[in-house]
Each structure stands twice: as structure tokens, then as C-alpha cells.
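C-alpha cells incoming
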């Protein structure tokens, strides 16, 4: 259903952040259901939309949640690439999102997206056999003050694709230190 809605929305969206967001949503939805070809095609449409000259969009003028800044675009790409199992790209975009949120304008910072980008780094680290990188990313999430935590911050094994990750960790000596960090 989400993919049909993004298809319809893409035909109506003006050039600019709205069109970019729709392609990003489509890519993530396709990745969630395992349609790699459609996800990668949507990422290509997202990149094409970034190159277009934006039209005046009254919705974007409201700002806040109705905008789709580069940090959020990288966050979406990182999450999508994580779902696709393309961990090098996931790491690149998740790291870029975190850096952009930390250094960008305060009004564009999304602590939830930043924390979830760390979750993508944790997933990529574990599935690439980099428990040190995963543990470092996990520590950032665990260090968040309680008032900055969001419900969506779940243990890596609760995410799509997380079960294979948990099985690998149980059978891998390199991943044995990560659960200790989670359980304290």
C-alpha cells in the first residue's frame, strides 16, 4: 500500500524536498519488503530529484517536520542501505547524517533520527564483523539522557534483519562483547 501511495504522490509532488522525501520513503518501503531493485531505483529517483531546481512549495515554508534537509536525507539513505544489506553505503550515509545533525542548525536537529542512525551503524558494524565499531555506536545511544530517548530505539535484533545478526553473534567469538554492553 505504501508503495502505491508513493507512486501516486511522486506524480503530484513539486520539484524539491517533497519529491526527494517521497523517493526516500519509497526506497525505504521497498527495502523493508525486500524489493532491492525497486529500492535502488527509488534511490536513483531521489538523487535525480536532488539535482532538480526546486519549485516554490508552500508546505515546506512551514519548516520543521515538513522539511527534508540533507541530514534527514542521509539518515533515510543509511537506513535503506542497512535494510538492503549494503553496509558500506549504510555506514557512509549514517555517519554523514550524524555529523550533519550535530553540526547543523539546531532547528533541523532530530535527536531521534540521529539515534536511529547510530542503530544503523550498530547493525552495519555487527553484520560486517566490526564489533568495535558497533560497540562505539551503541555507546552513543546508551549515553543519551532519558529525556532524549525515543521509543523507536530498539535493540538491533528487533529490527528487520536483526535475527540473523543475533544468530551470528551467538556463534561468533568476535561479537561476544557487544551483548555485555547492552545488558550493562
Amino acid at each position: 500500500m505504501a508503495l502505491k501511495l508513493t507512486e501516486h504522490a511522486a506524480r503530484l509532488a513539486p520539484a524539491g524536498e517533497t519529491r526527494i522525501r517521497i523517493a526516500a520513503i519509497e526506497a525505504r518501503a521497498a527495502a523493508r519488503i525486500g524489493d532491492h531493485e525497486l529500492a535502488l531505483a527509488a534511490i536513483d529517483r531521489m538523487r535525480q530529484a536532488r539535482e532538480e531546481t526546486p519549485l516554490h512549495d508552500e508546505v515546506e515554508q512551514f519548516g520543521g517536520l515538513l522539511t527534508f534537509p540533507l541530514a534527514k536525507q542521509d539518515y533515510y539513505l543509511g537506513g535503506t542501505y542497512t535494510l538492503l544489506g549494503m553496509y558500506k553505503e549504510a555506514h557512509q550515509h549514517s555517519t554523514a547524517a550524524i555529523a550533519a545533525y550535530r553540526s547543523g542548525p539546531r532547528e533541523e536537529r532530530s535527536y531521534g533520527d540521529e539515534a536511529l542512525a547510530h542503530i544503523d551503524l550498530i547493525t552495519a558494524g555487527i553484520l560486517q564483523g566490526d564489533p568495535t565499531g558497533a560497540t562505539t555506536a551503541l555507546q552513543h545511544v546508551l549515553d543519551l539522557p532519558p529525556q532524549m530517548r525515543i521509543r523507536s530505539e530498539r535493540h538491533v535484533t528487533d529490527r528487520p534483519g536483526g535475527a540473523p545478526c543475533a544468530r551470528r553473534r551467538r556463534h561468533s567469538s568476535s561479537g561476544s562483547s557487544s551483548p555485555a554492553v547492552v545488558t550493562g
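note: The first helix runs from residue 2 to 12.
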